[in-house]
Amino acid sequence: MKYTELPIPEHFDRKKADSVCRVDYSMISELAVEWKNKYQILPSSKDKKKTCLFLIDVQNTFCIPGFELFVAGRDQLGAVKDNIRLCEFIYKNLKNITQICATMDTHRAFQIFYPVFFVDKNNNHPKPMTVITAEDIENKRWFVNPGVLYNLEDVGAEFLKNQVEYYIKKVSEKGKFELIIWPYHAMLGGIGHSVVSIVEEALFFHNMARSSQTDFEIKGNNPLTESYSALCPEVLKGYDLSKIAVKNVKLIKKLLSYDRVVIAGQAKSHCVRWTIEDLLEEIKKVDKGLTEKIYILEDCTSSVVVPGVADFTDSANEAFLRFRREGVNIVKSAVPMNEWGKK
To answer: For a Cys-Cys bond, which of 3, 62, 194, 297 suits 264, CB 3.0-4.6 Å?
Structure first.
């Protein structure tokens, strides 16, 4: 099939990129069918070259200003602009995107990286962005909140105490991030957990136009470990070598089955970066040459920047340069897909 880019449908309103609104599924369904007929868009099952658009945590909690962990980037509108470009990419490349897979960071109140999990000697919880170290636990600056135990299934008090100490040491050894107490975000059932409205609308339009259902993948809901990567939690085993979490082997196999995997989402410095790190590790186990099938939309992802507090931009950019050296394709969303890889 000859490569063609499609126009942007008139219903797309880029001004809504920074807001939460209801998607009119009935209307979008009708418009998508009209679009399919007008531009002779075939079902995704007919694709000879299979392309997966892999979206990392494109949720309100990370992408809408004023929400809990808005990914601002250095221009302070990072994720908003990223999602405008992402939606335009989806609409223009409907014919060439076989399936969209979207991860959903998913949390409940009693998880190891939330304030309620710990207390000090006065029964105060740590403030968001507090770093808890192994020394903090050993010196009894912070304790596991006794109330946590009631909310965890099949976990005893002794195991929980030992596991928390083990976990904090383990994540520090990995050299990724220390245990950070995050603001409550991406709470299951809450509005922050939802996919950004304009992206949700684009996903549904793709569903209807290509007869291809979005694959939503839940990540981050294990109470005893963080999950920056969509493919593998930070820690898989307990202090006693018992299994506490597992890799998402099914998703890894699915991604590797595609001819092309296009990656975007939030945040470049955190979940996007570490998902790619894990994906490359899995690829190396099979065939290093498969890195050539990975494409990153570099203008559809931003780094965590909190002015005066933290800026992860440089470390993320360094990681992306390393990805490029390892064979990953770093591309712009506005460049036609048939021109990717051309000098």
So the answer is: 297
Are 6 and 202 contacting, i.e. CB atoms less than 8 angstroms apart?
no
Handedness of CA 120, 66, 320, 296 (dihedral sign): positive
- What region, left, alpha or beta, does residue 189 occupy, with left being phi > 0 and alpha being psi -120 to 50 degrees? left
pTM of the predicted protein model: 0.95
Residue 269: name the closest of 331, 209, 312, 218 by CA: 312
Domain ranges of the chain: 14-107+189-339, 115-180
Read off the pLDDT of residues 187-220 as tens digits, 9 standing for 90 and up. 999 999 999 999 999 999 999 999 999 999 999 9
Task: Classify domain 14-107+189-339 at the CATH superfamily level.
Answer: Isochorismatase-like (3.40.50.850)
Structure tokens at 90: 């989806």
SS3 category, 95: helix
Looking at residue 42, the DSSP 8-state letter turns out to be P
